[in-house]
Amino acid sequence: MNAKDVMDKIGHGNLWFHSVRSHMFLKEKYDAAGNFEKIKARLMADGSTQARSDFDEEDIASPTASLESIFNMLKLVAMENRHLLILDIGGAYLNAEIDRTVYMFIEPERVYIMVNINSGYAKYRDVKGRILTQVDKAMYGLVQSAKLWYETITGVLKDNGYAAPNPTDPCVWNKVVGGDQITIVIYVDDLAISCRNKVEVHKATDMVKSKFIDIKVKESNEMSYLGMNLKIDNDGIQLSMESYIQDMIMEFGENCGSILTLPMISFLLTMVRCLRRIKSSFIRWWQSCYTSASVGVLMWHCQFITSALGYRIQLMLTTRSWRGSWDTSRGL
């Protein structure tokens, strides 16, 4: 769309209130074992310039599967000897239609690349070298896109006989076929499908593939899922996050364990005890410092212990209820 056409339609003075900028990012993607997978590129809209006051909260709030739901699903896979298959839907948001008019400027750097690929785009450039477009799909970055994608994927599940979402988690959907329960857990663009009947797992996979394109399927005894490395056998599931630990060490340095020393923790603990008579909010702040110090020490030592024990510690450290648990951190 030519920028002049839009300006004539909505008025030059209102153009900036109806348009957003665009950005592109490149990111290296690795699996849970630290193996390089691909370089990920994505064109995004700058939703920070959208007026949130124009939206109701339910229009932009999108649920995501909780940690408890994910591990309950994996528990069922182990206990019931279910087949597990992971679907990664590429560009998931772009499968959803946008719900209102949004104009987006493509910046000159990206326009230059577009014109080199197809010279026909040159005629749409404005005086600043940009191209103004009308957004048709729920682009990444727009405030409403996550909710629109959730409504799209759950609409497909409803149309194919899956019951209303689990009352404790709107991202867990179930369906019973021939006495076997099929469970689908939605985590943004990752779908985990499990069932004791392998044929039903593949039917569910084919159903999703018939509705969306660019789907990567993972089905093996060892695979990566949400940063975890899963090893599945007849005895159950082994989980590990070795790559995550190494990333933490690389980010904070090999001395991250020695920086948060036990004397420092003892000092913080002593200060907390001295401040018990002060306002409770201030005490909670010091307790948070102590808990953070404990996390740092445990993360450092995870690399030197067995993977099974290390994973339990990692899971505990990433559990929402534990992160603020003063009593648990004192016990550790």
Number of E-type strands: 13
The structure class reads alpha+beta
Number of helices: 14
**Average predicted confidence as pLDDT:** 77
Spell the H/E element sequence. Answer: HHEEEHHEEHEHEEEHEEEEHHHHHHH
Q: Considering DSSP H and I runs of 4 or more, what fraction of the residues is helical?
A: 40-55%
Layout: helices, strands, pairs:
Elements: H1 3-10, H2 15-18, E1 19-20, E2 22-30, E3 36-45, H3 57-60, H4 67-79, E4 83-89, E5 103-106, H5 108-117, E6 131-134, H6 145-159, E7 172-177, E8 180-187, E9 190-195, H7 198-211, E10 215-218, E11 222-225, E12 228-233, E13 236-240, H8 242-252, H9 256-259, H10 262-274, H11 280-301, H12 307-317, H13 320-323, H14 326-331
Parallel strand pairs: 1-5
Antiparallel strand pairs: 2-3, 4-9, 4-10, 5-6, 7-8, 8-9, 11-12, 12-13
